[in-house]
Design goal:
Blueprint: E1 3-6, H1 12-20, E2 24-27, H2 33-39, E3 45-48, H3 56-61, E4 67-70, H4 80-85, E5 89-92, H5 98-114, H6 116-124, E6 142-146, H7 150-161, E7 165-169, H8 175-181, E8 184-185, H9 188-194, E9 197-200, H10 214-217, E10 224-228, H11 237-246, E11 249-254, E12 273-275, H12 284-304, H13 318-341, E13 346-355, H14 363-374, H15 386-392, E14 396-401, E15 410-418, E16 422-430, E17 433-439, E18 442-446, E19 451-458, H16 463-473, E20 478-485, E21 492-499, H17 505-512, E22 517-524
Parallel strand pairs: 1-2, 1-3, 3-4, 4-5, 6-7, 6-9, 7-8, 9-10, 10-11, 11-12, 13-14
Antiparallel strand pairs: 13-15, 15-16, 16-17, 17-18, 19-21, 19-22, 20-21
Helix pairs in contact: 1-12, 5-7, 13-14
Length: 525
């Protein structure tokens, strides 16, 4: 039974779901790094929120760990590079708190437009400063949305409902999607120039770090309002303070900070700043949603190999999983086979798809195939780290989806280019079961079994009889015998022999000495 650790406080529903899914679960919160290092080796999965920091040292102790899932969107507290190196899938739950975070951004926008916190404090103090708190209407104003994904798109819908005009910037925003959202697509500098209010909904990556800085603030309207309920580090806090001091920025609302928990900050105490302690996802509904989602995702992966909302490997939705499973099996079989017969040092791996498979998400198939190819030559390789490990060995990996017609309804072709030779294999599905159709350009059709003899030989009479007699004498039953030869040259041939019993290395050695045999290997799946 897989075992999962919940190391941060979350809804009890998460624990309940794990148990219903036959997952052994421990809830141990408040662990420091040393304490987590001591116990993490016992677990297949780790469910966290923002408190647990998963660094390289912890991952080095996580010998069994297969998946980390964050109940929330941001994964700044997970070392994704180290997780990938250790073959651990990193997931988040991007939908469970999207509405809640979007609502918080809208609330913050209202708060700075109408100075609600300041007016509230003044009124509680017994002052009646009605003329001091002159606000700004949102209706008719232009909202610039930086990041038009899950949360950004919800903010857009709510802003349009407030009769605001919306311009959006997102590197992945298409014209069609902008039209569907009912907004104007803009480049970043255009957005800065046009927006009365700016709200951020992007991850913290190299290209977005300090995206709100002195240089970009200078491109904005005088008296602009800025809201950040996304990630700390998107706003250069020192630059924002100078702009608030000068009045270039009328007011700002921040729910996130570069260093959290933010006990001290250069912005604190500013009259025109509203701040909250990272409350974007802090509603009862959101906490239940992300807890349920994280438990479902970890359970689906550990029980069914369904990968959802992964950040370091292609995801496989439950809907896709059923259709992909036969192809994943085909890729695993073909990759394992070619990985075992290739003796040359690998320089390049090319995986090509034709036919029905091209209509599917082929990235998971590529990952499974690549992992199987590399397994005989690399220790610790899996579907998560295979691409990175190949790159470290300077192995070029290419996957190609081809529109060329094939003799088969679906077709998967693999070429391994080495220093001195190229090894080839191709396969298809027959009644949803893998079938090899070509090895090193030799056509043959072969079913697969756990023990398969791969024999290369000169195309001369007598080999079938010699092999059959030898295996019979050894009490090794032949389940299937598949033959193919180079039709153009008719000088060499390949035999794939499925056998029911294991065969010893001594027996392999004897077969290799048979007349006309040039190579023999036992292929294991």
């Amino acid at each position: 039974m897989p075992k999962v650790l919940i190391s941060d406080k979350m809804s009890p529903l998460a624990e309940k779901i794990f148990k219903e899914k036959n997952i052994d679960v421990d809830v141990i919160t408040g662990l420091d790094a040393n304490e987590l290092c001591k116990i993490i080796g016992n677990y297949d999965g780790l469910a966290i929120r923002s408190s647990t920091k998963v660094n390289a040292e912890i991952l080095a102790h996580a010998k069994k760990l297969k998946v980390i899932a964050r109940a929330g969107i941001g994964v700044d507290n997970i070392d994704q590079n180290a997780a990938t190196d250790h073959g651990v899938i990193v997931m988040n739950t991007p939908f469970g708190n999207s509405t809640t975070t979007a609502e918080h951004a809208i609330a913050m926008m209202f708060a700075i437009a109408r100075q609600i916190p300041q007016a509230n404090s003044s009124t509680h103090a017994g002052k009646w400063e009605k003329s001091k708190f002159m606000g700004t209407e949102l209706t008719g104003k232009t909202l610039g949305v930086i990041g038009c994904g899950n949360i950004g798109s919800i903010v857009i819908k709510k802003a349009l409902g407030l009769q605001m005009k919306v311009v959006g910037y997102d590197p992945y925003l298409t014209n069609i999607r902008a039209s569907e959202l009912g907004i104007k697509k803009a480049e970043l500098d255009e957005l800065f120039a046009q927006a009365d209010f700016i709200t951020l909904h992007v991850p913290l990556i190299e290209s977005t770090k300090n995206i709100i800085n002195a240089n970009n603030i200078a491109k904005m309207k005088d008296g602009v309002f800025i809201v950040n309920c996304a990630r700390g580090g998107l706003v250069n806090e020192a630059d924002l303070k100078e702009s608030l001091d000068s009045g270039k920025v009328a007011a700002a609302a921040l729910d996130v900070f570069e260093n959290e928990p933010a006990k001290k900050n250069v912005l604190f105490g500013h009259d025109n700043l509203i701040c909250t302690p990272h409350l974007g996802a802090s509603t009862n509904e959101a906490q239940v949603n992300v807890a349920v989602q994280v438990a479902e995702q970890i359970s689906n992966y550990l029980n069914h190999n369904i990968i959802e909302n992964s950040l370091n490997i292609p995801s496989v939705s439950p809907e896709d999983a059923k259709a992909l499973n036969p192809y994943l099996k085909l890729g695993e079989i073909l990759g394992s086979f070619i990985g075992q017969i290739s003796d040359d040092r690998i320089r390049e791996i090319k995986i090509s798809y034709q036919g029905k498979v091209t209509k599917l998400n082929t990235k998971p198939i590529t990952a499974v195939t690549l992992k199987s190819i590399l397994t005989p030559v690399m220790e610790g390789v899996n579907i998560v780290n295979c691409t990175k490990m190949a790159a470290r060995k300077s192995i070029k990996v290419e996957d190609v989806v081809s529109n060329e017609k094939s003799d088969y309804a679906t077709f998967l072709n693999i070429d391994i280019i080495g220093e001195d030779s190229t090894t080839h294999i191709a396969g298809t599905l027959f009644q949803n079961e893998p079938r090899i159709v070509s090895v090193n350009q030799v056509k043959l059709e072969a079913n697969l079994s756990p023990n398969l003899l791969f024999v290369k030989n000169e195309d001369k009479p007598g080999l079938i009889g010699d092999l059959g007699k030898f295996l019979g004498d050894k009490k090794i039953n032949i389940a299937n015998f598949h033959l193919g030869r180079e039709l153009s040259k008719a000088s060499s041939a390949i035999a794939l022999i499925a056998i029911d019993q294991k065969i010893s290395s001594a027996d392999i050695e004897q077969i290799s000495k048979m007349d006309s045999v040039t190579e023999v290997k036992i292929i294991k799946f």
